[in-house]
Amino acid sequence: MVLTDRQRSDLHAGIYEYLMSQDGKHFEEAAEALSEADPSCIRESFLSKQAGSAGSLAGVPDDISIASRFSRMTTASTSTSATRSANLPILERKWTSVPRLQRKIMELEKTLTNNAKMYAHRGSVSGNITPMKGGLPGSLGSPSGMMERRNLPRQPHTHSLQGHMAVITCVAVHPKFTIAASGSEDGTIKLWDHESGDYMRTLKGHTNTVRSVTFTPSGTHLASSSSDLTIKLWDVTTYNCVRTLRGHDHTISAVRFIPMSMKELNEINSSSNQSNEGAGGKSDWDSSTTGIDALKAGASFLLSASRDTTIKFWDLETGFCSHTISEHKDWVRCLAVRESDGDYIASAGNEHHISVYSTSGKRNKVATLYGHEHVIECLAFVTSPTPVELKDRGTEMSDSKKKDSIIDDYLASGGRDRSVRLWNITTSECIASF
After folding, report:
1. d(C-alpha 360, C-alpha 338), whole Å
2. Going by C-beta distance under 8 Å and a sequence separation of 6 or more, which residues neighbour residue 419?
3. What's the gap between Cα 93 and its chain centre?
4. What is the pLDDT of residues 221-269, one digit of tens each?
5. 319: burial class by Cβ within 10 Å (0-12, 13-18, 19+)?
6. Closest Cα partner for 160 from 206, 192, 117, 185?
7. Which terminus of the chain is more exposed, N or C, with fewer CB under 10 A?
8. Taking a C-beta distance cutoff of 8 angstroms, is the pair 287, 293 a contact?
């Protein structure tokens, strides 16, 4: 490497200063030799030191060598210093700074790599699509594995919704309107307009921490679970609690509605029309003990998981528990429902594995997914719009078209082992870990 004159002068000055700071005759002789070889750079170091130590060199003869004057000056400045670290030669300071800067570079490179992995799905700033490595079988997008960018959150945040008096434990977003529901350890549920950021209403009824909130597929009702061992069903239009469900023996960790399939919606709609014609316009759902019209809600069952190690199916028409799964041996913390048809549910918690059940027939277990090494905190199926949403749009797909456009065989899970895993429930394999 070729140094400039200025860099070479600074280097010589640093070497000279270092040699003069060391004890021993040989160091002093080396410094004298360097001062004779390149007196100009030594003069710069001497002048800078002389400016800071003029008082300590009073009475020193003018005819002594530069090296001797510099030696006396360095000794004087060092003896008056409180700590040696403050007077380290510049060469030593630069030498010790190199490893520190190398460590900093390695940390920044690691952060850059992690950020590249975290934001790889965003693609280029100007593009609207980003290539997905390997792609997912049956994924939405082009055959080459290009996936459409979704409406991902971006900084800065639009609104800050404040009003709870304690920790917020859960949030749910209305499937149709700009309404968000939040549950808290203060025992209340608050409704917000997430578009304007305005507070709407507080739902009171629970006497302990609200653990989970969820809307029906059509958004007509809200379900909430709590550590007070109850599940409450709320009418979103009147903000009233229409039913309280009891049956669990410990904290109810999660609740989810099981959406009706398109076939069920059509059958109920047909039978409801026939009943209305024969009963003078009065629907059979008017006699529901919960006051919930399952057809309008788009769900006939509510699913709940509890620390009592059970999962319960609740009939929304009667409000009674119709089935209980008792296969778990520890706290069931989270639930997921395949929203495209409601055929499968997944549950997990302290047992470090995920159980997948069928919602039809005897509701048997269809898969067990192993891979996490700690408590599993959250689950989500990768799906397309629910049957209720398709019905509202006036869209009905054929079976062959549905297979091509709906991703319904994939489940995502997150655990305390700091990993997010993507599973194929058909093969019970983990196909990706993040």
Report:
1. 13
2. 372, 433, 434
3. 42
4. 999 999 999 999 999 999 999 999 999 999 999 999 998 876 666 666 6
5. buried
6. 192
7. N
8. no
Tell how strand 241-246 and strand 230-235 pair up.
antiparallel
Q: Output the 3-class SS for 92-152.
A: HHHHHHHHHHHHHHHHHHHHHHHHHHHCHHHCCCCCCEEECCCCCCCCCCCCCCEEECCCC
H or E stretch including 15? Answer: helix 5-21
CB 347 within 8 A of CB 307: no
Terminal alpha carbon distance of the chain: 43
Return d(Cα 247, Cα 229) in angstroms, integer. 8
Cα–Cα nearest to 378, from 250, 240, 212: 212
Question: Judging by beta carbons within 10 Å of its beta carbon (0-12, 13-18, 19+), is residue 379 exposed, middle or buried?
Answer: buried
Contact between residue 284 and residue 295 where contact means Cβ atoms under 8 Å apart = no
pTM of the model: 0.60
**Residue 433 has which token pair?**
């870990």
